[in-house]
Each structure stands twice: as structure tokens, then as C-alpha cells.
Design brief:
Largest sheet: 7 strands, parallel
Low-confidence stretches: none
Oligomer: single chain
Structural class: alpha/beta
Number of strands: 21
Strand content: 5-15%
Radius of gyration: 26 Å
Mean pLDDT: 95
Length: 783
Amino acid sequence: MTTPAPGFPNATILGYPRIGRRRELKRAVEAFWAGSITADDLEGEAAALRAATRERLASLGLARTGSAIPETFSFYDQVLDTAVAVGAVPERFAVLADGEGRFDLAAYFTIARGVGDDAPLEMTKWFDSNYHYLVPEIGPDTVFSLHAERILAEFAESTAAGFTTRPVIVGPVTFLLLAKAADGAPAGFAPIDRLADLVPVYEALLEQLAAAGAEWVQLDEPALVSESIDVDRARVIESVGIAYDALGARDARPAIFVAAPYGSLDDALPALAATPVEAIGLDLVRGSLPDGLDPVTAESLAAKTLVAGVIDGHNIWRGDLAAAFDRVVAVQHLSPAVSVSTSTSLLHVPHDIADEDELDARLISWLAFADQKVGQVAVLGRGLSEGRDAIEGELAAASAALADRDAAPGVRVPSVRDRLAGLAEADFARVNYDERVAAQESLGLPELPTTTIGSFPQTAEIRRARARLVKGELPADDYAALMRAEIERVVRLQEELGLDVLVHGEPERNDMVQYFAELLDGFAVTKHGWVQSYGSRCTRPSILWGDVSRPAPMTVEWSSYAQSLTEQPMKGMLTGPVTILAWSFVRDDQPLGDTARQVALALRDEITDLETAGIRIIQVDEPALRELLPLKLADQPAYLDWSVGSFRLATGGAEPGTQVHTHLCYSEFGVVIDAIKNLDADVTSIEAARSRMEVVDDLETSGFDHGIGPGVYDIHSPRVPGVAEVQALLERAAGAIPANRLWVNPDCGLKTRGYDETVESLRHIVEATVAVRAERAAPVLAG
């Protein structure tokens, strides 16, 4: 650079929730989709939300100038934003661009959600979080070109408001490592092969940001900490030097801060330290301080700002602030220039614990949502500037809350712990699969049985009834009558459509985890604790704070009622222990495996009660199995042991004639295929439609020999798949999976879809299944 890099702020965060304290962005985006507001209206709502965020962060202690406040807004997804900014949009959407190759908001959302026969970008989980990102499609011929208008406009907006903010963009290495090879790419091609072609676009972006007055830019490179990406690790390390040597060598650019959340940089740290970037982020919650550095790396780090991520951005506990400050001080042994930050973006936590006026006050004292974490960062930053004595009061208060939490009733329950201690190996296994198949023949299922994953659309009437119940405006008996009426409607609809295995539709469930959290001891639920899952979809994770047990049956009444309405088999629907943990904010004072086994025992008791009530097919959903897989290879065996073990503990008491299903979605299944086999479920349904049955190859080569239902309907898009499209997917699956093991189902539950599109899609699924059955029967008849 021609001038020295400006100083990095001593307190910052890696990102902030972008949906709004009351989900304002969600409502505005969905109103735009519905055509009830214009693009200009949506832009106005978004600008107001960004302005409120800037002011809020300044009021919580982050500096208005000096780049302390990051620009992390997105209408849908930060990876999609980057793809649009660098021109990496699939050719099928090129017609939506204007003459300059730019995409307006309607086109942007179409890329995310699809239209007609043009499928949207594939979706999968963002590292080990419940956030979903859209997967870029990169081929050898993808033409990269810069379209930074929105990035520059948002920076200019902040400048005009009196802020000097820090633009945040997904870094080039992570962007390509998370991408998939476009259809038609030659064998052996990987998107990272295009790094040298992409870097010049980032160089041009940095030049434009510098011209606009940006002092710092944050390039997010979480892929550098992951050992679970299907690219040789040496290639990843090499890419760091290629990208950041080039970017750092530019004269006209902001100072570069490379953030690497979700774990330790490990062998990527020396490579990054050797480049000209000015600041490096270290996740010191999931990761640790580097040790045994070679002299060259140590010297390089000493010349950079190290951003110490000591406040947990991934969970909601107040934590040990004194220990966090000690970690910050320890970083000063590596470099005299140290800044305090969150370990990850605060995208993963709700806005403000002060909004939770219905939570127990004692529990509240143990918690820190996004705003409280910003305050903690500011406190530690002040401690860096003024010394530990200046913040001793805040450190002591946090330590007192930690001690109070440790001693509180319900955190440890002797009866729960005694039951865990008494478990034997036999509790984790059923009889062998062949014996179960024979026992389950009495279910009378046809070849290629059709079913759904569990939930049906939750109508406005259902949501209003639930809201009135919560407010005390609707008597519980009246609410139950409404839910029974909806269950009967869903059952009759499935019978009319011709589905083989039915579900009750789950109208009584607000959320597949929260529903159980409200019925299990050891949990609390929030009122406004919303977190973005993907796009406009938000979830409200429950808080698992104490030992878990089941006071009473949770689903038996609803499943029994649904079964009484039909002669066809009705699935009982449960959420598995791993998913309950993954989609909750889980206590951090004991190993996750211990907590998972507590949840598993509660589910085991529920399965027994469902069997007693006559339910012979029980689905225990585990869509988050891949999500929690540690990013470091050395940590994966222990995780797979306790995660698979908790599922087997939950289902290990089921009778041979009970058909146990499970469901997994939006994961790279090849990575955990052995774990899926070890679950020993009789039938596993998995996401496959959006990826066009890519998982079939993994299933075929793995020797997977249980029932399997690769999804044929992508429910995360409003598209209605045609009969021919479903039939083609089903034929591909049937070409690799024996018919006596192949099931037909959507990718996931139907809760977020509307009834019109759902009914049409399910009708097409049944028609396609009938056609494939006929194809398979034709040779037999001809013979």
C-alpha cells in the first residue's frame, strides 16, 4: 500500500443479526414476493433496518468510525450476494440480468428460489451451524465480472449517516471451496481451479471500496479452518498464498482483515501470516491459541493485528468473561496489536435478551444474546485500553452469574443421572435388520411406497388459533377441536391423493424442536428469540439449560387420533436427540453426548407409549446429523460415536414389527454415509431433489442396504415439479436402489409451503410413482 494501514478498532464483531428485532426483513421480503409491496418499498424497509442496526451497535459501545461496525446485511444469503457481485450466476438465469449483467431484486430472489423449470441454487448448511447457504455453481467457462453496486451503495449509505463501516464479503478461497462444479464440467474439475481468474475481480472490488473511502474490508474465510471440505488440504493452503499475496500487493485497497471463524486455523495460519494482509481473526471459542510457531510465522504475526474471537457468537450463554479477558491478554504475547471480537458472526443468536419478559429472571441472568455480546466485546475492549481494574466489576458480575447457574435447582437431577449410569450395551441395539423386515411385512406396503416427511402446510388459521391459545383468548378444548379437524382434513387429503403411509400433518406443532422443548423438563422457550435459518425463514431455538426428562407422553394423543381415522398406516413423528440439540441453545457445562443421551431416554419412553397405542411406523427425524459434525477430522469419531449412539438409544427399545424411520436433509451425505448406516433405521429419507439425486452415487458405492427414500420434491422452493421431472428422479433412484428398499417422498416437511402447490406436487409424485411401478411391472407382464 502507498500509505500505512489505519489502526484496527480494539473492539468489534464479525457480524450482526440482519432479520430485525421483530423479523421486519422477513415480513418485508415475503410481502415483496407476494406482490403487496414494490421493490422500492422493500429497499426502503431494508435501509431503515440497516440504519437502526448501525445506531444500535454504536449505542452498545462500538465506534461509529474506524471500521468497528461491520456491514453484513443481506436480503437472502451472503454467499448468494458474493456470487452476484462476482458474476458467478448460472447461465440459466442470465436472461434475468439487465444489459450490464446486473440483477434486480426480483431476479436475485429467483436465483435463490427458482422459477418454472429452472431450479434454484442448491442449499446446504453453513459449516457446523443451522444456517443454510446457497451453493454457487462454477464451471471452467464461468465468466467472472464485478458487480459491486450494492456493496458500494450500502457503504455510501453508512458514510452519509456519519459512520465509517467495514464491508464484509465472503473471501475468494471460501467462495470457491463452497461452490460445486457446474453441470457439464469435466471430470476432475473443481471450482478452486478458477482461483486465479476470480482474484482479479476481488482486486477490482477492493480498489472501488478504497475509492469510496473504506478503510478496512473483512473477507470471511471460514473454509480455512475446516478439514471436511473435499479438496486436498495442501491445495487449500496453497490457495491462501495465491489469493492473499495478490490482494495484499495492490496499492489501492483498504486494509484487509481475514476472519476465520468456527475453529482454529492450524496449518492455514502460517500461510495466511506470510501474506500482506493487515489483520487475522482467531476463533478462540471453538479454536485455541497457536503454539509451537516457527520463528518466521511468529515474526509475521507480531506485525499484524490479531482479532481475538473470545465472545461466543454461536451460543447464548453469558459465559466466563474473566477467562475471556485472560485469553485476550494471552494473544498479546503473539502481537502487540490485539482487538476483541466475537468468535463468529452474531447471525446465529437472537437480538436482545431484554425482549424476553416471560423468561425466568434467574435464567435471564445467565444469558447473553447479540446485544449483550456486543456489550461484552465493548467491555473487554475497554479493559484492553484501560487495564483489567477498569472492568473488574463486569468480570466479577459474570463470574457470579456462572456460579449461580452451576448451583441452581434443575441443572443437575440425580434421577436422570442415575438412569444414564445404569445403561447397558443392549439398550443401544435392536434385533437384526432382516428379522425386522420379516416382522414388518404385515404392514402390507406396496413396492415404492409413497409418504411425506411429516408436516403439512401450516395455514394462517392454524397460526392464529395457536396465537389465540397462547394469549388466553381460545380455550384449550376449542383449540384441540380445531387441531383435530385439521388432522382429519389432512388424513382425508392423503387418502384422496393415494399416498401409502400417512402422517397427521403436525398442525399442533409450532416447531419440530420447540414443541418438544415445551413438554420436556430442562428446557425454556423464548418469545422473540428468532434466528435466521435461510432466506426469510427463521427459527426460535429453545434453551436447554438443565437435565432433561419427560413428565408425560408428548405425541401419543395426536397420533392415536389420526390413526383412528384411517386403515392405512400412520407415522408417529418425533424429533431426534441430535437435532433437538443442534436446533436449541444447549448447555455448555457438560459434554454434548451426555445431554444427547438424556434427550434420547425421553424419546425412548415416547416410542414405547406410541407402540402401546398401536402406532407401528415411527419416524425419528435427524436432519441435523451432518450439521454438528466437527470441522476437524480428529474430533469426528467421538462425535459420530455419541450422535449415532443417542439415536440408537432412543430407538433401541422398539419392537421388531415397528418400522423406525429417520430423515436427514441438506447435507453432504457422502461424508456421513457410514454414520447413517449405523443409525440402523429401517427407512431413511434424505434430501435429493435439488441436487438431482447426486446422493444415489454415494448410496450405491457405500453398500447401504436398508430402506431409503431420496427426495423427489424440493420443498424449499415454490416450484411445483412436473410429473416427468419427478419420474426422471425416481427412475434414476430406481436404477441404483432395489425396489424393495426404495421409498418415494419429498425432500423435507411441507410446513412452509402453501396448500395449492403442495397438493399439486404430491399429486405429481403419486402419478410419477404409478408410472414407474407400471414400467417395472411391464417386463414381467410381457414375459
